[in-house]
What we know:
0% strand, 75% helix, 15 helices, mainly alpha
Amino acid sequence: MTIQILRYRSQNKTLPSLFxxxxxxTQEQVANNLNVNVQTVSRWECGTTLPDVxxxxxxxxxxxxxxxxxxxxxxxxxxxxAQRLTAVYEKTRKPEDFIHCLLEYKKLMxxxxxxxxxxxxxAIIHQWMFEYCKNxxxxxxxxxxxxxxxxxxxxxxxxxxxxxxxxFAVGKGEEAYECFLKAVExxxxxxxxxxxxxxxxxxxxxxxxxxxYFDRAGAIxxxxxxxxxxxxxxxxxxxxxxxxxxxxQEIAEKLRKNGFDVEADMAEExxxxxxxxxK
Length: 279
């Protein structure tokens, strides 16, 4: 695209004509798109007249540029407006610019005109937003932990639990484990911490330790037998299907006894799945 535009510039073309030629449009095609005559398009490109304030944004979108680009010396036409917005977002990394990109790519998707380059750009803007969200989440978790627990102890230890889970999700398993150990020193009776800590230990293959933490959560008391679910899934992971089967049955019985029929059905389905696997 850039080489093509430079070639046109060497022929002393104006920006409107550069943008049109870089898209391989004829003046007739542009005129038809904008519902004007060819002579009008020609006058724009000769510099005799300019598009009016209502037409200029439409023309910019057609060429894959911004209105400002018509007034710049070194403008480069993009394949579409979404790619132009992607370049802006790459520079600013602001969430609002991500939203602008997202909406524009959605329009391309609905129109069925998403190119391979558009798909790559669509993926990369989500990657940039993921990095932003990851960093922002960590900053806020750290802010809560630095402020201390005196003002709101419940929110504080919940933030600890979420931070543990988040650290592991982004590939920082050992750091998540250390965070858990520090958190339970401060909040030894917070069952959520033991659930998260047990899950981290399970993924780090510290299976015996994981089971101990799940049992500790159960001893404190969980609302929906979370510790039993976690133990059952861990047993499945390490090949103790029979133990997992018994736990799912126990969960189903406890839930049904307390009136949670839907949840009980789900636990029974897990038990049946293991029973079928055994057969």
